[in-house]
Design brief:
6 domains; Immunoglobulin-like; five-stranded mixed beta sheet; 919 residues; mainly beta; Jelly Rolls; five-stranded antiparallel beta sheet; 57 strands
């Protein structure tokens, strides 16, 4: 239907229709509130099926988030379903307006249905501030009614419309300068604007995108159809500014707090000129190393800056040169260049405290001696600068004669058995330096690992010369391995020019190592074994002497042990009785332990050893911690005749129940005796002794003697005896010994095991206060001991490291004192302050009691002597006295009477006020 209506509209529009449009009645509605806007247009129906165009122009902007209401009122012949109108806004179809009653005059009547409203978005108005509404009557709508017309009314909420009324920007030199911008913002809407922000930006061109914010101005409000008037803002240009015509951009309401119908006019720009120039400077240049030979690569570290007020915006080049002098020009030898696309004003590259680096090569024809490396910033002159006098910098460099560099090109080492093996080492030394080499020596070493410590030198090879770029070809050196070699993966080390005869470019590649395998193993043997006696009792001690040998071709990798055994036959096995062991330290190949002579160890025959011909043996590496070439030769045995015991007392042990007995006091001693013979002992004597040394004899102080009976073979007697430490015993270590059968009444197989002892720490109480010296703080004073009552006697009676605590005073101490009334006053710190001749005395503490105050001087009656005799702080106290200078015996007779004298400066004044006899 819409398409048919559009076709009809196009076919019926004629010149006549447009002529009728000139007769439109324009009605403007008064807004209902300050921010509302409404306008009404009306046209009469003059023909059947008529098309009406309503143009609303110069409209104020509408709220972007709101809608525009289009109300269409139809007056006339719209009384059937075929009598209607189609409504369009800006060529967009809005809908159909159905007919109503015939020749209606009241469109607002409830059943008239002749008023209809449509909504369109605010953008229809805000795009061009205009709106075109088309109303197209259907073909059956006639002009027969007297009230025939179409009325269109638009209404919406109006918004502010902010734009820049004027702006001016002065020219400037560039970065760091203050730019004062004068501007005037206008609100051309009938609605006032609240607070908004105007942002100001810098950019090289007039396109806003990517502009840099320089500052903002806040405008509290802007009334309808008013301007802010001229305002100013001071802006500081960034260091990215470039010389030439540039732009200050503005953005009104940059935070979008004001809802405007038209936002497209909030931005703009103003051109201005930047007159300053960049100034590129070479600020720093160093070289590492500071010397080298021709062809050497060196590292230059450099820093540049732009001290100008504008950015160096075009690419420029930093050239690096080799020069014979410190003045760098493009005539010097060019080495390399780097490109910088730009550098901001007052900026550094790479930073104010950092440097960039570049590697350059010293020319191969560089003359020997002191030379220079330099840099030339913008050597091609691409940047127009304020000055070019500071674009260069140089640093000293010493060109030295070329040096050789010796290193091992190849080396091979064959596997070897071990100690004494001849190893043919094939090697090739090359000189990859820039100079020829003279005579040097290659030294070879043996090492268990790749580390360079603990090596064994094996031999040298002398090379008389080696030109640069050449090698020796394959050389051979035969080396003999030392007896320190260890089985496994080992190393032949080399050190080229080990005497440092040749000065090289680098010394770090002169030494390294080559691995090879040592296939031999250690082979431990007991080459000698003997015993101290040929016969012995079961349980007796025998001394064995022995010597070991490593018959293998490699060193032991770690220590081991040699075990000593008792056997019933000459074959020593691990199942035999193991008596003792000794450590075997690491032995080199083909070496003895000890190097000469023998070692010894004491072993004890098993107490259960049967009588007869038996064997003592040594078994080296019996625990097998190391791998050997052979283990069949690790043992050796010697015969020993075991003699059966008849009777044999064994002093097993004595133990004091008190490790610190006191002299003159009792203590308890535990003892144990065993019969290791094969006959029952009916009785035996036990003596207990006190000794000052470890040798228990019958000359020592006997503490007790007693007899025990009936001790069967392999049985034990145990007991406890109460003994007394001799009162004369000295403090310190002493020994309590047990001596069995001291009179040798019993014939024993072994008389050497009848004694045993233990030690005690004897404590003494020298002063008899009941506390021994080890606990008494003064064992020579019976009034001093821990727990004693503290007495005020100047001693630490209770041993708490405090003297006379709780006493009024400490004996022997002194203090100042004063007890003569006025004259001396005691201060808060205990001292005294005295006046005149008064002075303090002193007291001494005796047995915790202060003595009487002695030596104090107190106040006296004031006399006329220029001294503060009464110690009240005043001298002579204005003393007065009676006086009479008349004849003796005449005062107070008749008219005669006494006068008075006043003391001044220590002397009596004249007598005044007296009446003398008449002359």
């Amino acid at each position: 239907m819409v398409q048919s209506v559009k076709a009809y509209i196009q076919s019926t529009i004629s010149y006549f229709h447009w002529a009728l449009f000139c007769c439109l009645a324009l009605l403007v509605m008064t807004p209902s509130k300050a921010d509302a806007y409404a306008r009404t247009l009306s046209q009469n129906i003059t023909q059947q099926g008529q098309l009406f165009t309503f143009n609303f122009n110069n409209l104020p902007p509408a709220t972007p988030s709101g809608n525009v209401t289009i109300r269409v009122d139809l007056y006339g012949n719209y009384d059937s379903s075929l009598e209607y109108a189609d409504v369009y806004a800006d060529k967009k179809y809005l809908g159909v307006h159905n007919g109503g009653s015939y020749c209606n005059t009241n469109v607002t009547r409830s059943n008239a249905r002749m008023r209809k409203s449509f909504t369109v978005p605010a953008s229809m108005i805000n795009d061009n501030r205009a709106l075109e509404v088309l109303v197209s009557n259907s073909s059956l709508v006639t002009a027969s009614c007297s009230t025939r017309r179409v009325t269109v009314r638009i209404s919406y909420t109006e918004t502010p419309d902010l734009l820049m009324s004027s702006i001016s920007v002065p020219n400037t030199t560039g970065y760091g300068s203050t730019l004062t911008v004068t501007y005037n913002v206008r609100n051309r809407s009938t609605r006032a604007a609240g607070q908004f922000i105007v942002g100001f930006y810098y950019k090289d061109n007039s396109v806003f995108s990517g502009a840099q914010l320089l500052g903002s101005a806040t405008i509290a409000s802007l009334g309808a159809n008013t301007t802010t008037g001229n305002r100013t803002i001071n802006l500081t240009l960034p260091n990215t500014v470039k010389a030439g015509t540039r732009y200050i951009h503005y953005f009104i309401d940059r935070t979008n707090v004001i809802a405007e119908g038209i936002e497209s006019n909030n931005k703009g720009s103003k051109a201005f000129s930047i007159t300053g120039k960049p100034n590129l400077r070479a600020r720093l240049l160093t070289v590492s190393p500071t010397s080298g030979f021709p062809g050497t690569n060196v590292t230059l570290r450099y820093r540049i800056d732009n001290s100008g007020t504008t950015r160096a915006s075009s690419p420029f080049f930093i050239g690096f040169y080799f020069s014979n002098d410190s003045t760098i020009t493009t005539s010097d030898t060019f080495l390399k260049a780097v490109t910088r696309n730009s550098l901001n004003a007052k900026a550094y590259y790479p930073g104010s405290t950092t440097t960039a680096s570049i590697t350059v090569t010293i020319p191969s024809n560089a003359p020997i001696g002191s030379r220079y490396l330099g840099m030339f910033v913008d050597y091609a002159g691409n940047i127009s600068e304020t000055t070019t006098g500071d674009n260069k910098r140089s640093t000293a460099f010493t060109v030295v004669a070329p040096k050789p560099n010796l290193r091992m090109r190849s080396i091979s080492v064959p596997n070897a058995r071990g100690f004494g093996s001849s190893v043919n080492v094939s090697f090739n030394v090359e000189n990859n330096g820039n100079g020829d080499s003279g005579r040097f020596i290659v030294r070879f070493y043996y090492g268990a690992g790749t580390g360079t410590t603990g090596l064994t030198a094996l031999g040298d090879y002398t090379i008389n010369s080696l030109p640069k770029g050449s090698n020796t070809g394959t050389l051979t050196r035969t080396l003999v391995l030392p007896n320190t070699v260890v089985a496994g993966r080992r190393y032949i080390h080399y050190f080229i020019d080990y005497l440092n005869d040749i000065a090289e470019t680098t010394e770090s590649d002169n030494r390294s190592s080559k691995a090879f395998n040592v296939t031999g193993q250690p082979d431990l043997q007991v080459v000698f074994l003997n015993r101290s006696v040929s016969s012995a009792f079961p349980g007796s001690q025998v001394t064995l002497t022995y010597r070991l040998y490593n018959a293998g071709y490699t060193r032991m990798p770690k220590s081991t042990v040699v075990g000593f055994y008792f056997s019933n036959n000459g074959t020593i096995e691990l199942t035999d009785s193991r008596l003792a062991q000794a450590t075997v330290p690491i032995l080199n190949a083909r070496t003895y332990r000890p190097a000469s002579g023998t070692l010894s160890i004491n072993v004890t025959l098993p107490a259960s050893a049967a009588a007869g011909s038996r064997f003592l043996g040594a078994y080296v590496n019996d625990k097998n911690p190391i791998t050997e070439a052979s283990t069949t030769n690790n043992t050796r045995a010697v015969p020993i005749n075991v003699v059966a015991r008849q009777s044999d007392l064994l002093a097993v042990r004595v133990v004091s129940q008190n490790a610190t007995p006191e002299a003159g006091k009792t203590f308890k001693l535990d003892y144990e005796v065993k019969n290791i013979g094969n006959t029952t002992l009916t009785s035996y004597t036990v003596h207990l002794y006190f000794s000052t040394d470890t040798s228990i004899t019958t000359s020592d102080t006997r503490l007790a003697s007693f007899t025990r009976s009936n001790l069967a073979p392999n049985a034990t007697h145990k007991g406890t005896r109460t003994l007394t430490i001799p009162a004369s015993a000295k403090e310190g270590v002493a020994y309590i010994g047990m001596f069995l059968d001291p009179a040798n009444a019993i014939k024993e197989g072994d008389e050497t095991n009848n004694k045993t002892l233990t030690f005690v720490n004897v404590r003494v109480d020298n002063d008899g206060d009941g506390v021994t010296a080890d606990k008494d703080c003064n064992d020579k004073d019976k009034t001093v001991y821990p727990g004693a009552k503290e007495v005020c006697d100047g001693k630490d009676n209770n041993c708490d490291k405090l003297v006379d605590e709780g006493c009024p005073c400490v004996s022997g101490t002194k203090r100042s004192c004063y007890n003569l009334g006025s004259g001396c006053v005691q201060q808060s710190n205990g001292s005294f302050k005295c006046s005149g001749p008064c002075k303090v005395g002193s007291q001494t503490c005796n047995a915790g009691v202060w003595s009487a105050c002695a030596g104090a001087v107190g106040p006296k009656a004031e006399t006329c002597d220029k001294v503060d005799n009464d110690c009240d702080g005043n001298i002579d106290d204005n003393l007065k006295r009676s006086c009479y200078t008349g004849p003796s015996g005449t005062d107070n007779l008749g008219i005669c009477q006494q006068g008075s004298q006043t003391c001044a400066a220590g002397k009596w004044g004249t007598c005044s006020g007296e009446t003398l006899p008449a002359k």
